[in-house]
Amino acid sequence: MSGPDTWSQVRPAVARSLLPWFDRNQRDLPWRRRRTPYRVWVAELMLHQTRVDQVEPYYRRFIRRFPSLKSLAEAPLQTVLKHWEGLGYYARARNAHRTARHLVAQQHGRFPRTYEGLLALPGVGPYTAAAVASLAYNLDYAVLDGNVIRVLSRLTAFPADVRQPANRTILQQRANALLVPGHAARCNEAMMELGALICTPRNPRCDRCPLRKVCAARQAGTPTAYPRKTPRRPVPHKEVGAAVIFNRRGEVLVAQRRTTAMLGGLWEFPGGTREPGESLPACVARELREELGVTLQVGERLLIVKHAYSHFTIALHVYAARIRQGRPRAIECADYDWRPVERLRELPFSRADWAIIDFLEKAPAGGRHYRPFSGA
Predict the structure, then answer these.
(1) Which single residue of 215, 247, 323, 362 has CA 20 to 30 Å from 141?
(2) Which residues participate in catalysis according to the annotation?
(3) 225, 260, 284: which is the final residue of a domain?
(4) pTM for the complete prediction?
């Protein structure tokens, strides 16, 4: 069922069965209402590699605060990052802000109306360009996200590793071939909806699938064998140290990451990755010396935060510390600030740092009893 005969059956089944199924079963999602290029673009930036249920509250909050391209362009980057906080992939937020400013300044606040023009925008790749082109302008471009890859792989029992670029190209060509001319938006959303609701990674509901009669994997009885993927390499793990430092006013020291760094523009409790053979207290002292130019006395460990990023995991060891010598200055960071615990959440932090803020908020007197402070 993976040869040309199958393909000739799949194409008409999309128009005959999949699109009517989508019209009856599509979810009521906020980005499907009052669809504009801006709203589609924001949604697709958020949705790429992130589940719908995670994105929906972020999208609502973001659109309330930045209802137009102009409002996004005029906002400070810190405000944009704060409204993206917790969603991850912060380069997307920085690129969105940059793109908004560019379009307002150079294109009268209008999005390009071609796939090529969209692809030239900062942080916009083939997936997002195809999504905006099809969903906002109904241009005949097919999207290829994880849901679509899974559906296509099962429909044709695609035997090759879908992580390989050459095989992604083949799947993109197949997705293009399935588009019903003039109905790109419905086709793309229908394929994605099918993957999200029916053709799920585990326990697919094949008996309810509108394409079940033309699915090679279902006929073979092996839908969960697809898509084929080579095993990933073990995820690297990092041991990270961070410092909680209070001054005499009861304020805690935080630093802002450079925009070129991972999590760029966010704030953090200063610290960094332990080097081979280095103790964690020594790591904290070294990082604060390099980052902020201060000499520390590192005290007790307050907590350990475990967190997983897309390509590695960390154990964040958080220590109470005090400044023995020097005053903070931004050396290997964008900025620093002294903040009362109750005002930390005004700044954008990563999820790992949220755990430290939670700890300090619950500690007696906002954690200030952890401060064997110097004259800072």
Answers:
(1) 215
(2) 44
(3) 225
(4) 0.84
